[in-house]
Input
Amino acid sequence: MATIALDIGHRPAASAASARASGFAPLERPELAYTPEVAEATAPVYEKVKDFIPQIEWPVLAPVIHAINKLKKERNAVILAHNYMTPEIFHGVADIVGDSLALAKEAAKTDADVIVQCGVHFMAETAKILNPDKTVLIPDMKAGCSLAESITAADVRALREKHPGVPIVTYVNTSADVKAECDICCTSANAVQVVESLGAPKVLLIPDQYLAANVARQTDVEILTWAGACEVHERFTAAELREYREIEPEVKIIAHPECPPEVVDEADFTGSTAGMIDWVKQNRPGKVMLVTECSMADNIASETPGVDYVRPCNLCPHMKRITLSKILDALVEMRDEVTVDPVISARARQSVERMINLKS
Ligand code: 13P
Ligand code: SF4
Output
């Protein structure tokens, strides 16, 4: 197995509240007044987020939500938001919310002229790859991902040379350049299905070593991988989950497959972010711990009354770069536009479309 040294991040000191607050300064625009019209239009949103956003903050956030919602209609824009967006984005301005697979599928279907991707850069690139003629905006160009940064197109070419004839599956959390070098994409929701669809005895599943290890336990296909990791999920430990179970024996633990296998072993259920949400909605445990990014629990709390969300969780510093004020700026100024070289895009599109077109 090829390995690389990674510069793994540390638990960010920032909280979800401070991530929201970081977007406050640009919101102090005279046109963003908290008028009775704004209060009325945004009241249903506040109902959903009131447990996470203090009332005192609402007169600052509500006018921005209102302005974004008006502007996106004028621009014929659609806002795609990942499940890790903060509640005011998730409930306030998103047209479509979901996991990486759902967002890629929605990006392929949209007839909007403009896509605003509230997520990280690889997600915006995927939307652009599927919609080369549309304008795709990302509110913060620096919203990256430790997985996407762990591997380059040259690394994939070297892997192909080292393992001739072995199909290469890339996790969707990679750059367009990397997708262009691979045979097919997968997400955490369909990785086993994608690997098995190839009919090969051995498959390279890159770049997440933990997703690959978790998939390897569910299939007879031999899996080779790469030493990438999600800086959010690799920080959970089996020991801390065992401690939580000791303190709260009735807690249900559900984990994302980007967690190390020994963490997944402690979980009652493992699935993509959408899979985790569905599990909580269907099973309605009294207490649940979502072993993933912090906004997940905040976003579904209003739809799952009676479920107590036990922490810890970890913040993704990249996802948290996306704020309401940056979304508004993106729509006002039509920036930052995501572009992908047409030749790379055409090759990467084959990898993404092969995944989307798989029969479920
Ligand atoms: P999913 O939403 O596809 O489960 O992915 C999680 C993730 O880490 C995206 O960055
Ligand atoms: Fe990347 Fe992990 Fe953040 Fe998702 S949660 S964007 S995989 S660093």
Remarks:
- Residues 120, 145-147, 173, 230-232, 258, 293, 316, 318-319 surround iron/sulfur cluster (ligand 2) (CB under 6 Å).
- The longest helix spans residues 58-74.
- The domain at 16-143+319-333 is CATH 3.40.50.10800 (Rossmann fold).
- The radius of gyration is 20 Å.
